[in-house]
Amino acid sequence: MSETNTVAETLPQLNESLFIPCLQRDYCWSQKQVEMLWDSLLRGLPLGSLLVWDRNIENREDPAYQFIRHYVDERGYSHEKEVRRYSKRLPNFPESYSLILDGQQRLTSFYIGLYGSYTTRIHGAWKQNESSYNRRHLYLDLFSGDDSDSHDRGLVHEFDFRKSGGLNSAGDSYWLRVGTLLDDTQELTEAAFLDQEQFIAKVKEELPTSLSDVERSNAIDSAEQLWRGVNEREAILYQTTLTDEKTARELFIRRNKGGIELSGVDILLALLTGYWETVEDVGAPKDAKNEIEEFTERLSGDERLSEEGFTFGKRFTLRTLLLLSGETPSFRKDGRYDGDLLSKAEEIFRDDEFEQAVRDAFELAADLGFHNAALSSKTVVTPVVQFLYETDYDTTGDNEEIHYWLATAVLNGIFGDIGSQRVLETAREHIQESDGHKFPAGAILADLSGRGTTTHLDEEVLDTLLDEVNYQSGSRRNVLLTHLYGSDRRAGHTAYEVDHIFPRGKLANREYLEEQGVAPEAVDWYKEHRDHIANLQLLNGDGANQSKGDRDFSEWLERVEEGEVGSLATKKEYFETHWIPENEAQHEYPQFEQFLMAESGRKQSIREQLRQTLPLRNSV
């Protein structure tokens, strides 16, 4: 059965008779996607159909979730109670309701745009501060709407999430909040939508008298298009199915192949919601989806873990539970898991020691120099979580074996080269066989050897790393630099900056280098080695990097000596802190190769330091 409705007819049904099933993914559209949907509505472009699941009410137990009204695109947000990242479970079943199998993202986007808000964190801002977030509402530029114009982001009707509206300072845009379509009541009902005459009268009252007749006419035309798009265009096609849960899940998977494809994580989470007990809590019941969301929120909001850059999501949590329960630690789109093992995963999850093991493992990783930016993936820490959960291991010792595991796995790219599933299963087997006194790093890595990648860490491997790892090497670069500087500085952390000692741009400027006395035949070598690990230093966030900028190294050293660079008092202090050769001749461009590669050069200096700080093993 199918029917068509307007946005105004459909949205009042959300959270009244239309809800989201447990097998749906979380809302995930960006602001740009929401804006493009609204533009498509006004332009009359196809929006796709909705698939609605109706079932007999008798013996109905499937969980349902509410549509989000005020959305925040950030895990661990806790500043405004009504602003949410995840859907809230419906506490009680109404007498009659339907579930959206396909179309949740579109309906939520209309709901947020008309009746809610969208909150984002300011880039780089501290996530625990409420002032770090922008809560915005959807606005339409009433001066837009001309198909012949060239509009930003491909929009004809220019929508934007903003803090406020009105005429902009340039006078070329007038922003009307989309929510102006509603009266001032708090509930979204069909009666809350203003009729066309009321709405246009309200818009006319808000338009400034300074507008020209043409501007006023264009603005009113755009407002009328907005009203008609919401109230008259039958844009939402319903297709309704009456089926059982198994068939509904198959329909959901098939329908989502054409959009943002349903992931194995989504399927597993839906299965867990069916397998796990529903826990009664004050105010509302909790199920697997609720509890895992709350678990990831708690971890992501933890002060210490957050300071180290760690955020946690469902993928990491579910994969860790699969590993600990004995299941294959990978996500299956066919949904074929061992039901007994999924039930075992529930027992592990509800054990307080599981969450403590996750916290302890990541705190220990950070203590050993593996904050978030120094990990290729949080999965590298998963075997450590298993080890701490299944043993009585005391983390206050030297933790040498865990250190060796993390360093070897990240620096050699073991998870990427061999594959996470094989690595995790191999680690699980050896951890289960271990005596619990020390992490079985050697046994795991020995078992993984012979698969085309290096599975040990010694001086020879270190020499290879010092030639391979450079400015673009991500977590491997951050591991080496963090171990070079020790616990005082962490490469990749927002409080510190990875900086080129000899400026990167100038090392690729042939004309400039030759003016500085560099031999023409050496220029290509300079460009090739400008990102070498030995040309990188880790500056703290006291303005030193901004002070250096693109200055020549020798010129910047003069500023250091004059006390003009942050906390650096003297050149001698700088040389000692950063393992810089003190030979002044090596601070000039013609001696760049010697600065890096000479026996007294920086590569050799940092090699000697890393020999002390990395958990190297003697070659066998």
TrEMBL record:
It comes from Haloarcula nitratireducens. Residues 17-272 form the GmrSD restriction endonucleases N-terminal domain. The lineage of its organism: Archaea, Methanobacteriati, Methanobacteriota, Stenosarchaea group, Halobacteria. It holds the Pfam family GmrSD_N. It comes from the Archaea. This is DUF262 domain-containing protein.
